[in-house]
Amino acid sequence: MTLRFLQTALLVVVLAVSTQAVAAQETELRIQVAHPLADDAEVRVGLYTDRSNWLDEEPIVGGLAVATDSLTTVIFTGLPTGVYGAAVYLDENRNGKLDRNLVGWFKEPFGFSRDARVRMGPPKWNDATFEVSEEPVQLFIRLD
What we know:
Layout: H1 3-24, E1 26-34, E2 42-48, E3 61-66, E4 71-80, E5 82-91, E6 110-112, H2 125-128, E7 129-132, E8 137-142
Parallel strand pairs: 1-8
Antiparallel strand pairs: 1-4, 2-3, 2-5, 5-6, 5-7
């Protein structure tokens, strides 16, 4: 056998084992969202995994649930373990975007993981992060 063949075979084995290890480390995330009573609205959640794309780019994964009463749960399954940040809003008119008023402030209730606060700009990544491990994770986020 040639050295090239052995290197390729070893790479295939390593990739197969690492893919199985990643699959075994996926888990479930449940986000309970407290929000104002809303009729015919959706709770939308965006998950981010990196400080460099926090709120500046599209989230790596999004989820939504029809708003019920004043507490709605959005469930994510199959998430890889790691550090995440979540941005959430109540889409009152179900148009798929966080609406703004004439001066640019948000018209719909919104919030962030760990109830990170907005102070002269969006919350800092470190204020909003949480860890997804091999065990199921549950968060509670209050929308203002």
